[in-house]
Each structure stands twice: as structure tokens, then as C-alpha cells.
Sequence to fold (538 residues):
Amino acid sequence: MKKYGRLLFIILVLVFIYAPILILALYSFTTATNIGAMRGFSLHNYVTLFTTPELREMILGTIVLAVVCAALATILGTAGAIGSFYSGRKASSFINTLNEVPVINADVVTGFSICILLVVVLGISKDTYIPLIVGHVTLCAPFVYLSVIPKLKQMDSSIYEAALDLGATPAKALRSIVLPQISSGIISGFSLAVTLSLDDYFIATYTKPATFDTISTYVVNATKGAQTTIKTALWALSTVIFAVVVLIVVAANIRALREGMEENRKEKVSA
Amino acid sequence: MHTLKFSRKSLGIPYAVYLLLFVAAPLVVLLYYALTNGQGQFTLSNLTGFFTDPNTMGTLCYSFAIALVTTVVCLLIAYPTAYILAMSRLKQKSVLILLFIMPMWINFSLRITALKEILTLIEGNLAYYPFFNAVVGMTYDFLPFMILPLYNTLSRLDGSLIEAAKDLGANDRNAFLNVTLPLSVPGIVSGVSMVFLPAMTNYVVLDMLYNSTYIMGSLIGSYFSAYNWHGGSMIALILLAIICIFTLLTRGMEDDSAETRVGGALL
Fold:
């Protein structure tokens, strides 16, 4: 009985999480303009999504921005983590402390303060994309730093010393000994940076050029307007993103999934 | 040896400079703008103005109310979820937990759009229940951020402690209240800090659900639209102060394991 109560609770939470996304996905394949009124099957939302230049540019722009900023953040954050790890306590606690600020801070404050410094005080035009890129790198780099540091701590430092003893230059040892050992941290830092940039609304609003939109800023503005074609095309976008996320998650965990299923099956058989 | 150490350390210099320029300097500028007026003269009127204006004080209270209720609701949903998952005997629970945090990776504005359509269908007109909708929206947005740290803490919990409590005569309820719950405090604190502060500032959720009442974030937004950098900076500074107080209060209590700090991308 208790077991079923637990199962029911889990199912209810999953319904809360997924029902809106899945219902929207269902309606994205119809001609309906409102949820609730079922209409015929149609792919016109997907056609609109991929053929309207405005929408295409916005999606592409968001992706390019995310990849560029994540790459910059990964380089900065990784180098920063390695440097801080080998520095004295003072220097590394200095970097650690400043690194915490964007992590803890509200995005509204981060975005607003960067806008004030770069746009208001230094007079850099938002059209140069510099404030936007700085904003997103500032948002992402601290998380790259945080995912690389634990890998550095787990690293076996004697291998690096051995490489030096065997005649490798420090740069070579860093490249072929340290980097491979922390690569999983770098990769997860990069992917986290991409998702942070893709999801950001506040920093982009305060720093982006007026003519440029990310998915978040576009969607937020579109929901205020009443343009139905755009509104329902965004349902299609939501569905596409959902499908992509599911694919990535499944692909990244395919081995764990298979093992898990087998073990559960074995357990059921033996029980 | 000296040059070698220098070369590794110096890798940190670009990032340290970057942090100084784009994390520390903006905060200094923020402080300057908050404490000056349009003529560049020192003034406290932005500060006193905030605390004497009933409108802005109302905004502060409304933000606290939304953040508090959202945090409690998230906790009430997330704790049992994380507990059930962590205690279940299924293998590969880390895959199951993915189902609950996957929404983290879907753009929040699109998720709120989906929620808005459903709420409109159920309620007819979103304007009838602004507070309720705001809380549902925030909960929908932030729930994964509460589930993840709770799950991380609970799944690492030493099961033998609970067994020991039961061997010593505690019933399920007492074992939970005296062993499991206190040991999961770090997860609770991490989750709360990931939900409470964003819920005070994420005004877009309210905007998208047609709740036109201001929260602290909306004040910054409206000053920004009005090019009032001094007023906006003061709000940002007040938010920073709230964040600092919150961080100091929870210092050392948080679950600062890498998985929790860095979030779902590690999975």
C-alpha cells in the first residue's frame, strides 16, 4: 500500500512536470490556435518555424552565441582553474571568491551591473555584441571553473612530476598529462556553459543589441503580442527543443540505461 | 623549478584579470551609481526613497511572499520525490533522476509558455489568480533545482545510521525526524538557496502569466527601461545585500559537493 502511495506521488510530480510540455507538443501538430480546441493534423507550425527568416535567425543566433560564449568561458575558466590550483593560498582564494559572485548573484543584478559598466560608463555600443558576449562569458565561466577544480583535486600529481623527470617541458606535460585527466570536467563545464547561455534571459535583455534576439527574449516578447502564427510556431519550437534534449540525454546515458534495465530484470527474475 | 611553477600559476592570470574587470568592477560602479544622483553628487536619497515609498516597500514584501511560498511548495514537492527516489531499491537511479531534472535543459520561457496555455485552459482567465499563478509558474521553473541537491544529499546518506536508529528502537517516523531529516539539511539549504533568490527576481515568469504586480526584479527592469541607472543600481544593491545576508546565514550549511554546485550537467 505504502509502495503504491509512493509510486502515485512520483507519477503526479511527473505529470506536473511533463503534462504542459507534452500537451503543447500534441497541439503543435494541429491547426489549433488555442489549447483545448482540437483541430486537424497539420505540420504548418513546423514549416513556419523553419521558413520564417525572423525565427530562423533568432534560433541560429541563440545557438551561435551559446557556442561562442561557452567556448570562451571554457578556455578562461579552465586556464583559471589550473592557475588557481597551482597558486598560493592567497591567490587561489582571491579567484575562488570572485568566482562565487556570479554564481550566487541574481542574473538580473549581474546583467544590469555589466550593462552599467560597459554601456553607460565605458560607452561601448550594444550593437558591437561585446556587452552581450562579456555578459554570457561572465555567467558561464564560473561554472566551468567549478567543474574543473574537483577534477584537478582528484588528479594524481605524481604523473606530472614523472613526465617532467622524463624530460617533458612543463607546457608539454600540462598538455599531455594534466589536460587529459581533467577533460571530463572541461566537457561538463562546456555543456553546462552552453545550457546556461541558451536558457539566459536577464543578462541578454540588459546587454543585447536591439535588433538581436535570443530564444528567451524572443519568446517573452512574443507572448506579450497577439500574433497567432508566431505563437503556435513557438509551440513547435518547444517541441523540437524537448525532442533534442531527450535525444541528448538518452544518448549520453544509453549505457547506464541498458545496464540499469538488465540489472532490474535480473533482480526481478531472482526475486 | 622556479620558472616551471610560474608557468602553471600564470595560467590563472587572464581569468583573475577577467574577474576583476567584469565581476568586481561592475559591482563598484553599481555602488557608485546607487549612491549618486544624476549630477554625480553623493546622495542617500535612492536608499531612503526605497525604504520610505510604500510602493517599493510593497514590492519588497510581495517578492518575499512569492519567494517564500514558492520555496515551501518546491520543498514540499521535491523532498518526498528525492526521498522516494533515493531510498528506492532500483538500480541506476541516476538515470531515473534525469527525468526530474531534464526540464532544466529546456528553455524556461518555452516551458512557462506551455504552462501558461494549460493554466489558461483550466482557469479561463489568468487574471483571476495572479498570486497562485505566480507561485505555480515559479515552482514549475525551479522545481528541478530543488530536487537535484536534495537527491544528492539523500542518496549519499549512510543507510546504516537509519538502521542503527531502528535497532535502537526508533520507529519509522522517529528515525526519519531524528536521523534522516537532520542529515539532509545541507541538501535543503542548497535547494532553498537555488529557489528563494531567483524567485524574488525572476519577474519574467510573472510577466508571462499576466501578473502585473512588481517583484524586486521588475523594479530593475522598469528603471532599466526608463534609463534611470541610479535608481536601478540602488535596487540591485539592495538585492545584493539580501543575497549577502542569505549567503552568510547559510554559510557552511550548504551541500557544496561538486554535483550539487555545478548542477545537472554533470550527470
Summary: Residues 57-266 of chain B form a domain with the MetI-like fold fold (CATH 1.10.3720.10). The CA atoms of residues 55 and 214 of chain B lie 9 Å apart. Chain B touches chain A through 87 residues (CB under 8 Å).
